[in-house]
Design brief:
It is a single chain. By secondary structure, the chain is an alpha+beta fold. It folds into two domains: 219 residues, Enolpyruvate transferase domain (UDP-n-acetylglucosamine1-carboxyvinyl-transferase, Chain, Alpha-beta prism), CATH 3.65.10.10; 212 residues, Enolpyruvate transferase domain (UDP-n-acetylglucosamine1-carboxyvinyl-transferase, Chain), CATH 3.65.10. The chain has 13 helices and 23 strands. It has a four-stranded mixed β-sheet, covered by helices on one side. Strands 2-14-16-15 form a four-stranded mixed β-sheet, covered by helices on one side. Strands 4-5-3-13 form a four-stranded mixed β-sheet, covered by helices on one side. Helix 6 packs parallel to helix 7 and helix 10 packs parallel to helix 12. The longest helix has 13 residues. The two termini are 22 Å apart. Bound molecules: uridine-diphosphate-2(N-acetylglucosaminyl) butyric acid. Uridine-diphosphate-2(N-acetylglucosaminyl) butyric acid binds next to helix 1, helix 5, helix 6, helix 10 and helix 12.
Length: 441
């Protein structure tokens, strides 16, 4: 098939990115808050919503279920009226199959509203196996019957409603924690969820659910306790900022010797990233309006990091930072403990001149599920190495943004193919690149 010319970005690299950009709400919260609106037969208003493709996928899925959704992209306001919810046509739902991982989170809310749910085959970035066993086990424990035999997806029913249960997650999965919260808030009785994830995006979802009328508490040992209530009402909420996007632009500033003020970026959710950014030699200044990130000149320093669940170093921060680490003076080590296969994006970086070696061993001390398994989940980066532009194919969202950063930092031209994938999570990145003085078309 012929390539769409709009899907290729031609970049003339080697220019520092300088200027101001604005980052809106978190992709990984906004989509979940939109699903939460399904729980209440009324109107919900979500503010600070970014103009990204995931918002449109969730809007379409809600509309297929009879929900009214109004997306005011320019002002970042999504209004959802879930007074009416109906079963969607399986064939229609299936057209959205493969576009995102969010549909699985419709399970609990749809079962509460309609007694059943149909979930199409899931999409999302190819960065590991990305199973949904924890999600399905959670739903079963809460009393749902899960039929995986349906040819197009998963059919979930609960003729007698969902009821509270004691659930333990074998790994603190973000999605499975959200699944449990969204399903347990209206379940009859109490639910205890231990081994949960507590990312800031999850805590913002808890805030939304609490505004809606839910009763949820969290213990210091990452156990959520949810007391089911009979009904919930709509909410009005402003999303927390996208800390992954903010860190991506921070890494871009470092890799291109630039100076970027990220309006909207907030410190509390980024403490771990900021520590690493400082250790690498980057400078930052936190203000009431956002965070300024810049390369102060001189050598960047190598670091050893391990990705982890919150409050650890996010896996989604790893990929953009690796590009900056190719410019640090010495050996950096990154041990990826969240996804088994998140270093595929380093191959094009090596072809651009980076020295990066991947290892199956755990190069770190965190307990890791991939120990003694056949996954190349540790990377050693030796720098500084000049990068040279080339043709690149975007593999996944964060890997793709990293390639874009590499192309901007490299000398000479690069053609970045499959660039539309980046629209999934980086709102108006072309406009932002323009504001930062990047040379591209
Ligand atoms: N896992 C299982 N079984 C499950 C669920 C997860 O084994 O049923 C494993 C996964 O395979 C993975 C680990 O648990 O190895 C963590 O997965 P998690 O469920 O936490 O991830 P997720 O909810 O699918 C969200 C974000 C990701 C982000 C991760 C970790 C959304 C839509 N996605 O994914 O974001 O990397 O949490 O923070 O919220 C991105 O934005 O580019 C992105 C990939």
């Amino acid at each position: 098939m012929a390539e769409n010319p709009d899907d290729v970005l031609h970049v003339e690299g080697g220019k520092p990115l300088n200027g101001t950009i604005k980052v809106r709400g978190a992709k990984n919260f906004v989509s979940k808050a939109m699903v939460a609106a399904l729980l209440a037969p009324g109107k919900s208003v979500l503010k600070n919503v970014p103009e990204i493709r995931d918002v449109h996928v969730v809007s379409d899925l809600l509309r297929l279920h009879g929900v009214d959704v109004d997306v005011d992209g320019a002002n970042g306001i999504v209004t959802i009226d879930a007074s009416r919810v109906q079963l969607a046509d399986v064939a229609d739902v299936d057209t959205l199959s493969g576009s995102s991982r969010i549909p699985i989170l419709f399970s609990g809310p749809l079962v509460h509203r309609l007694g059943e749910a149909f979930i199409p085959a899931l999409g999302g970035c190819a960065i590991g196996g990305r199973p949904i066993d924890f999600h399905l086990e959670t739903l079963r424990k809460l009393g749902a019957t899960v039929d995986k035999e349906h040819k197009d997806g998963i059919h979930i029913t609960a003729p007698n409603g969902l009821h509270g249960a004691k659930i333990h997650l074998p790994y603190p999965s973000v999605g499975a924690t959200e699944q449990t919260l969204l399903a347990a808030v209206l379940a009859e009785g109490k639910t205890e969820l231990s081994g949960a994830a507590t990312e800031p995006e999850i805590m913002d979802l808890v805030c939304v659910l609490q505004k809606m009328g839910a009763i949820i508490s969290v213990d210091v040992d990452r156990t959520f306790r949810i007391e089911g209530v009979k009904e919930l009402q709509g909410y009005t909420h402003t999303s927390l900022t996208d800390r992954i996007e903010a860190a991506s632009w921070a890494s871009a500033a470092l890799a291109t010797h630039g100076d970027i003020f990220v309006k909207g970026a907030t410190q509390p959710e980024m403490i771990t990233f900021l520590n690493v950014f400082r250790k690498v030699g980057g400078k930052f200044e936190v203000t009431d309006k956002g965070i300024r990130f810049w390369h102060p000149g001189g050598d960047l320093k190598p670091v050893a990091i391990e990705t982890d669940v919150h409050p650890g170093f996010m896996t989604d921060w790893q990929q953009p930072l690796v590009v900056a680490l190719t410019q640090a003076n010495g050996l950096s080590i990154v041990h990826e403990t969240v996804y088994e296969n998140r270093f595929g994006f380093t191959k094009p970086l090596v072809e651009m001149g980076a020295t990066i070696q991947l290892y199956r061993e755990c190069l770190g001390s965190l307990p890791c599920r991939f120990r003694q398994r056949n996954y190349k989940h540790s990377a050693v980066i030796f720098g500084p190495t000049p990068l040279t532009g080339r043709d690149i194919d975007v593999p996944d969202l964060r890997g793709g943004f990293s390639h874009l950063i590499a192309a901007l930092a490299a000398s000479g031209p690069s053609d970045v193919h499959g660039i539309s994938l980046i629209d999934r999570g980086y709102a108006d990145f072309r406009g932002k690149l323009e504001a930062l003085g990047a040379d591209f078309d």
